[in-house]
Automatic annotation (TrEMBL):
Organism domain of life: Bacteria
Nuclease keyword on record: no
PANTHER family the record matches: GLUTAMINE AMIDOTRANSFERASE YLR126C-RELATED
PROSITE patterns: GATASE_TYPE_1
Residues covered by the Glutamine amidotransferase domain: 16-193
Membrane-spanning parts: none
Protein keywords: Glutamine amidotransferase
Species name: Halomonas tibetensis
Signal peptide segment: none
Protein name in UniProt: Glutamine amidotransferase
């Protein structure tokens, strides 16, 4: 069994936590369905763990903003650079996506078009179709999204694996075993509906049809498999290490 660590970078809305579990719990539930388990490290309140003894890292979403450069978030950056230098497998999600891009030389900040929320189609690039992890997804697939910030500039050495009409950098690869995605593979339709419920005023202010967004929420089976497929890849590599 691979030694997987979930780096917790924030908390979900209290009602979501009560009904469905916090970010790290959603990750653990998805991994459990694939026969995997993972420990949790809260980056906001705990000292950085040693990278030795870890086979793979997940980085969760957060209501924090990468551009605010909070001390705990900034402290993660050199740690992630070290992890990348060791070629440790990493999968960042939402905040984790933006944090990895920022740590590796890109720019993450508020998207000029505003928030993207709901179930939206994402399309693989040519590089994405050939990618060891993302290439297992269909060319076009629905994904759950909830973010105000984005990777506005990918690191110069990153490979863009997926995009959509809102965000050119929906998925990036930074090395042979380091990926990040803007979408939430851990979100179920129920969690996505709960999130949209909180975001209706902001989305209306952007001129979006919130009722259509709510009605458009669907299951995202292929995107949801990304968490266990990453764990499977880590497990295969750990067996041959």
């Amino acid at each position: 069994m691979p030694r997987l660590l979930i780096v917790k970078t924030g908390d979900a809305f209290p009602d979501v936590v009560n009904a469905h579990g916090d970010f790290e719990t959603l990750f653990q539930q998805a991994l459990a369905r694939g026969g995997f388990n993972a420990s949790v490290f809260d980056a906001r309140h705990e000292p950085l763990p040693a990278l030795e003894g870890i086979d793979g890292l997940y980085i969760t979403g957060s209501h924090a903003m990468v551009s605010d450069a909070e001390p705990w978030s900034e402290a993660l950056k050199p740690w992630l650079v070290d992890a990348r230098g060791r070629n440790l497998p990493i999968l960042g999600v939402c905040y984790g996506h933006q944090l990895m891009a920022s740590a590796f030389g890109g720019v993450s900040d508020y998207h000029p078009a505003g928030r993207e929320s709901g179930t939206h189609e994402v399309t693989l690039t040519e590089a994405g179709r050939a990618d060891a992890l993302l290439g297992q997804l269909p060319l076009r697939f629905p994904a759950q999204l909830s973010h105000a910030q984005s990777v506005l500039e990918a690191p110069h050495d990153a490979v863009v694996l997926a995009s959509n009409a809102h965000d050119a950098n929906q998925a990036l690869r930074y090395g042979p075993r380091q990926w990040s995605v803007q979408f939430h593979p851990e979100f179920t339709p129920e969690v996505m509906r709960a999130y949209l419920g909180h975001q209706v005023p902001a989305l209306r202010d952007q001129g979006q049809d919130t009722q259509a967004l709510i009605e458009g929420i669907t299951a995202t089976h292929e995107a949801s498999l990304l968490l266990t497929r990453f764990a499977e890849a880590v497990a295969r590599e750990a067996e041959h290490a």
